[in-house]
Amino acid sequence: MRTPLKLALIAAALYAGGCATLLSPEAERQLEEARASHRLASEDPRVQRYAAAELASATAALREAERLAAEGASAELVEHNAYLAERRSRTAQGTAQIRQAEADIAAAREERRRVQMEAREREAAAARARAEQAELARREAEMARREAEMRSQLIARERLEKEKVSLAATELAAEVKRLETELADVRAKQTERGWILTLKNELLFDSGGATLKPGAQRALDNLAQFLRKHPERDIAIEGFTDSLGSPDSNQRLSERRAQAVKDGLIGRGIESRRIDARGYGPSFPVASNATETGRQLNRRVEIVINPS
Amino acid sequence: MKRIAFFFLPLVACAMTEPPVSEMTAAREMVAQARANAAQDAPHDLATAQSKLGHAEAALQRGHYEHARLLAQQAEADAKLAWTNAEKLQAQRALREERSGG
Predict the structure, then answer these.
(1) Domains in chain A and their CATH numbers?
(2) For chain B, what are the domain ranges?
(3) Is 0.90 exceeded by the ipTM?
(4) Which of A57, A150, B93, B98 could form a disulfide with A108 if both were Cys (CB 3.0 to 4.6 A apart)?
(5) CB contact, 8 Å: B44 with chain A?
(6) Which residues of A are less than 8 Å from B72 in CB distance?
(7) What is the pLDDT along chain A (308 residues), one digit of tens a residue?
(8) Which residues on chain A are in Cβ contact (under 8 Å) with B11?
(9) Is B91–A98 a contact, with Cβ atoms under 8 angstroms apart?
(10) Binary contact (A94, B14; C-beta < 8 A)
(11) Closest chain B residue to A102 measured between Cα atoms?
């Protein structure tokens, strides 16, 4: 190769390089800085996830810088591309941090919303529980009130019933007393079995007989009237004798006399089923059979007015 | 250090004949965007971007198109970083407020 051509080629190469220089320490330093920034960004998984486009443009600039440096291009162009690579790497990291913060904000909001929701739900549950408690208490109070009301009604009814009964008893006593005063030789006394009217046999029957005397009619009229007035009360008619004579005949006599009184009342319209008639002969004396006065007391018919 | 790169740039303004229209437009728009949010939170990056855009405009006026192109690219990158850093700080502030029961 001839020298002038050689020189021309060198001149041409220098011209074509234009502003080309060798890689300066400053360019090398900037390139190194760009590589470090880019490495930092590309190793961050958040950057890959959230700022892929920005990272790609940083990568492109870095490759361009490397390529230019390898080809011995001008330090300025190398530095320019290294600079762009460094800025874009940092932008990519910043973008990833923005997305991260936004995601964190969304998560924090969601968490706050969840906590608030839970608090609201707890409050609502507590309110429901309180309402249920109140409703339960109200129902219990209502039940207690009704029970008290029913009990007081029951007590009132019982009192009324008692008053009615005692009124009825008072009325009955008055009637029985009236019977006693209207009929001579009738005595009335109140016992556990109820009122007992004692009629002397002399008033009702001739001695030894079981036919009612005319004088007995008034007593039976009064008794029938009393029974008609008190249809709820049944009576027992019990005949007794003194102890003179045979017990058998006394027994039969007392039975016939009790039956005669029953018949007399039936004849006055009183139902047979309301009257129980029986004789006891000389049993159950009320006085001594040793004296005439005593025997007279033992000869008797007792009308037991059953307590209703 | 960025400043050094920027000072050497005039030397590479060699072989460009067309004005760098798209680079200038992108740089202007990005700087405007950064100006809107970064004045408080990334003032230094914003100032760098604005300064470079100013030099790019001047280079464009003088017909130093290659120089203008590189300055515009750097201004855009600076503005984008300013905007991103400001946005990041604001998001992190919002997150702190949210966490402190905001």
Answers:
(1) 13-142 (no CATH), 172-305 (3.30.1330.60)
(2) 20-99
(3) no
(4) B98
(5) no
(6) none
(7) 445 565 555 544 444 444 444 678 899 999 999 999 999 999 999 999 999 999 999 999 999 999 999 999 899 999 999 999 999 999 999 999 999 999 999 999 999 899 999 999 999 999 999 999 999 999 999 999 999 999 999 999 999 999 988 888 888 888 888 877 777 667 888 888 888 888 888 878 888 888 888 888 888 888 898 888 888 888 999 999 998 889 899 999 999 999 999 999 999 999 999 999 999 999 899 999 999 989 988 999 999 988 76
(8) 19, 74, 76
(9) yes
(10) no
(11) B91
Would you call A97 and B12 a contact, using CB atoms and an 8 Å cutoff?
A: no
Nearest by CB: B98 against A29, A84, A105:
A105
Q: Among A99, A91, A42, which residue's Cα sits nearest to residue B78?
A: A91
φ, ψ (nearest 5 deg) of residue A234: -95, 165
Tokens 């409050």, located at residue: A123
Residue A30 touches chain B, beta carbons under 8 Å: yes
What's the CATH code, domain B20-99? 1.20.1270
Long-range Cβ contact pairs of A252-260 (< 8 A, separation 24 or more)? A252/A279, A253/A208, A253/A210, A253/A279, A253/A281, A254/A279, A254/A280, A254/A281, A255/A279, A256/A210, A257/A201, A257/A204, A257/A205, A257/A210, A257/A301, A258/A301, A259/A210, A260/A204, A260/A205, A260/A210, A260/A211, A260/A212
Q: Does A87 touch chain B (CB under 8 A)?
A: yes
Which of B1, B77, B92 is the closest to A88 by Cβ?
Answer: B77
